[in-house]
C-alpha cells in the first residue's frame, strides 16, 4: 500500500490518496479538487471511495467535486451526517459567510466501530470523538497506517473549542483507541507532518 499527502486550502488540510495497485482511497478531500484529480490522473489511479474523518469545512471542501467526478461513495459517521448540509455545523458559515458549504449527504453512514473493506483495502474504524462528536480514525492494521484526522497531530492534539468538542473526551479517545496501537504505526494527521505512535508517546506534551 502506498500513500501520498496533499495539503490543500487555506488551512493546508491534509488529503491522503492511499493506493494499492491501480486502486485508491481518498481521505479528507478538503479543498482544491483539481490538485487531487491531477495527482490521480498522473498516477493512473482508480478511486474506489472517499473516507471522511469528520465533517469540518476544511476536510470536506472538495467532497462533491471529487465524488461527482469519479462517481464514488463517501463515508461519514452518523453523528455528523447533518453537518455536510449545514454550514453552521461544518464551520463554513463563519469562514466563508458569502459562500458557505452545503454538500450532498454521505453515501454510507458509519454507525459504530467496525471493519470496513473496500476492494483490496481494509480499515478498522475507531470512534475517536473530542475534536468533533463524529470524528473517526481509520486504521489499516496490516500496514500499520492510521488516518487520525484532527484527533492526533505531531506534538499536538485537536482543538476542542468547536461544536461538540471536549478536551476530556478527546484525550480519552487518544488514550484508549490510538496509543494502544503498535508503536511503529504511522500516524497521518489532518494537518502537519506524519508521525508515529511511539514518537507521540515519547514527545507529545499533551499526552503526558
Automatic annotation (TrEMBL):
Q: Which SMART domains match?
A: Lactamase_B
Domain of life of the organism in this record?
A: Bacteria
Tell me the first and last residues of the signal peptide.
none
The record lists the membrane-crossing segments as: none
Q: Which GO terms describe its molecular function?
A: hydrolase activity; metal ion binding
By its UniProt entry, which CDD domains does this protein fall under?
Answer: metallo-hydrolase-like_MBL-fold
Metallo-beta-lactamase domain residues are 12-191
Keyword tags: Hydrolase, Metal-binding, Zinc
Cofactor requirement? Zn(2+)
Q: Which InterPro entries match?
A: MBL_Glyoxalase_II, Metallo-B-lactamas, RibonucZ/Hydroxyglut_hydro
- Its protein name is Metallo-beta-lactamase domain-containing protein
List the lineage, top down: Bacteria, Bacillati, Bacillota, Bacilli, Bacillales
Amino acid at each position: 500500500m502506498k500513500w501520498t499527502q496533499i495539503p490543500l486550502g487555506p488551512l493546508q488540510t491534509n488529503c491522503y490518496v492511499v493506493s494499492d495497485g491501480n486502486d485508491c482511497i481518498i481521505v479528507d478531500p478538503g479543498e482544491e479538487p483539481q490538485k487531487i484529480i491531477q495527482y490521480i490522473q498522473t498516477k493512473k489511479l482508480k478511486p474506489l471511495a472517499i473516507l471522511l474523518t469528520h465533517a469540518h469545512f476544511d476536510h470536506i471542501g472538495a467532497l462533491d467535486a471529487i465524488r461527482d467526478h469519479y462517481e464514488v461513495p463517501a463515508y461519514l459517521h452518523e453523528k455528523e451526517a447533518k453537518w455536510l448540509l449545514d454550514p453552521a455545523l461544518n464551520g463554513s458559515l463563519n469562514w466563508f459567510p458569502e459562500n458557505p458549504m452545503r454538500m450532498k449527504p454521505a453515501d454510507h453512514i458509519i454507525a459504530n466501530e467496525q471493519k470496513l473493506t473496500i476492494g483490496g483495502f481494509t480499515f478498522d474504524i475507531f470512534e475517536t470523538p473530542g475534536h468533533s462528536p463524529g470524528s473517526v480514525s481509520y486504521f489499516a492494521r496490516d500496514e500499520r497506517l492510521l488516518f487520525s484526522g484532527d484527533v492526533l497531530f505531531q506534538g499536538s492534539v485537536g482543538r476542542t473549542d468547536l461544536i461538540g468538542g471536549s478536551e476530556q473526551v478527546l484525550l480519552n479517545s487518544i488514550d484508549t483507541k490510538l496509543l494502544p496501537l503498535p508503536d511503529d504505526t504511522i500516524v497521518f494527521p489532518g494537518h502537519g507532518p506524519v508521525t508515529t505512535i511511539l514518537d507521540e508517546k515519547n514527545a507529545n506534551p499533551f499526552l503526558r
